[in-house]
Amino acid sequence: MMKFVRTHLAWKVFLSYLLVVLVGGVVLITAASLSVPAAFERHMASMNAIMTNGNTVGNNQQMQTELFSQYTAAVYEAVTYAVVAALIAAILASFFISRQVVTPMLRMMSLSHRIAEGEYEERLALPGGQQADQIDELGQLALSFNQMADKLEKTETMRRELIGDVTHELRTPLTAVKGYLEGLIDGVLPADPETYQQIHSEIDRLQRLVNDLQELSRVEAGAFQLLLTPVSPSSLIERIQSTLGRQFEDKNIQLEISVESDLPDILVDKDRILQVLTNLVGNALQYTPSGGKVTLLVRRERSDVLFSVKDSGIGITAEQLAFIFNRFYRTDKSRTRASGGSGIGLTIAKALVQAHQGKIWAESNGEGKGSTFSFLIPISR
Ligand code: ADP
Description:
Number of domains: 3
Strand content: 5-15%
Shape: elongated
Distance between the termini: 22 Å
Bound molecules: adenosine-5'-diphosphate
Radius of gyration: 41 Å
Oligomer: single chain
CATH class of the largest domain: Alpha Beta
Helix content: 55-70%
CATH architecture of the largest domain: 2-Layer Sandwich
Number of helices: 9
Largest sheet: 5 strands, mixed
């Protein structure tokens, strides 16, 4: 997060008012000093006449009143000119200052309309040539606005990609089912249990895909509640052993378990962490050939508990590792499609671990050299 030395807008507004008053004041004084001599000169002539008349007539009282009214007329005239000039100057100064505030607002308004119409590319510049480390609230607003536009653009891209991915994923099993049915209608395929079994397995895959998608959308949107309770890591491993142990035996894969003693409890949603572990251990089982070995390791790592699933299976290349947590990503499309994987499991696992403020990653020495999937869960949060 950027650190700002913020110049407060309120302070700037105060200064601009002060500036307007100053400009008005300066213009008032200047205009007064310019108009006073002229006004006095003009009224002086009348005053001279009065004074001469007054001496003749000898009426002192009347002469004083006349003199005073001429004097006030001169002052009013001078002040009126000065005030009009100061007013014009103050209005001009206010206009330029308010433009500084209103222009970025107007730009923001027109950009927000464009975003609402689906044009996400444009961004706001910092108002008034402000530097990123010295911005006021208007600059902050422009930055927040840009962040919002970034987020909207990303969401829109994700939405488009998701629709593309889902369409692609649905098309394959649908085409297969349609193909089987056409074969049956044309009499090319025999109407025997094997054909129906094929159709059934394609529909089964569709159903799993839809369920996975539902889960993915819920997890990615953060629309799930974590029921946090203190859980002992070894109890999680026992559960995994009891649910998946049998499958390891059936496939003749050795399941080795190594849990450090005296591990502290972790504050987690037990079912969600079990879901992650089941996915990782299930994958290890799936991608390890018979006769292989899977090691499930749990140990303390500073302020976290590390869960690690290491297998001696088919491995993952360095290029594939970069994408392994992306949704629908499969290292070998045809193979995993045949085995039923939708490539969503790891995406869900990552979202669940992150929801626990944890971290998940994968390592492998390459094809045929096994893989290790690990995740960290903080002990105290
Ligand atoms: P899937 O349902 O396809 O297994 P995942 O998201 O769980 O979906 O996994 C994505 C892909 O990552 C898999 O299709 C597979 O290609 C690869 N993968 C996952 N775990 C392993 C593993 N232990 N060894 C090798 N490849 C793996």
